[in-house]
UniProtKB/TrEMBL annotation:
Pfam families: TetR_N. Residues 34-53 bind DNA. GO terms for molecular function: DNA binding. It comes from the Bacteria. InterPro entries: Homeodomain-like_sf, HTH-type_Tx_Regulator, HTH_TetR, Tet_transcr_reg_TetR-rel_C_sf. The lineage of its organism: Bacteria, Bacillati, Bacillota, Clostridia, Lachnospirales. Residues 11-71 form the HTH tetR-type domain. Keywords: DNA-binding. This is Transcriptional regulator, TetR family.
Amino acid sequence: MELTNRQKQAMTTKRKLLYTAYELIREEGYPALTIRRLCEKSGVSTGAFYHHYSSKEDLIAQGFASYDVGLTEFLESYEEPDPVKAIRHIVLSLNQYIYDNGAQFAKELYISQLSIKDSYITRKDRSYYLAVLNYVEQAMDQGLFHSTMNAGGITDFLLRVGRGTLLDWCLHDYAYDLMEQSARDLDFLLDNLTAGRG
């Protein structure tokens, strides 16, 4: 179903606000981010902001949803025959997305998610979760994973470790290379899940 012009305009406005917020957070830090400043810099009216978001925290929380939209588009043409490599690619791509948007952005995403009751990052209807689950199921069907856990349990475990690495990076004040550590942690898990694989 094709989007209407109004829906396309709404998506453009939301994207503009989100990316302007990322830019302002990188330049000035989250505490300096105000809705007025954000609207001025993005060229979006305050009324339009409140039409799409209830607060700046709500906007920041949408960062994960923005990643999921991009992931869905990417997966439409993604062809990786090895489900283990696909899992690695998808999990690392989220950490790369957060890293690319800046350390302060990562911290604010987690703060916003910890301060709300229904945290988006742990939802099991997210494109991210469903994509990893799909490839975990494929890996299990092909006999590539050796575990007593079911596909949902393995998916939860992999994503918990990914979130844990991001949180640890924030807690250590970004003192190490996030992507190198993320790859090492994930490779350790995947190597153990595939141990004994022909």
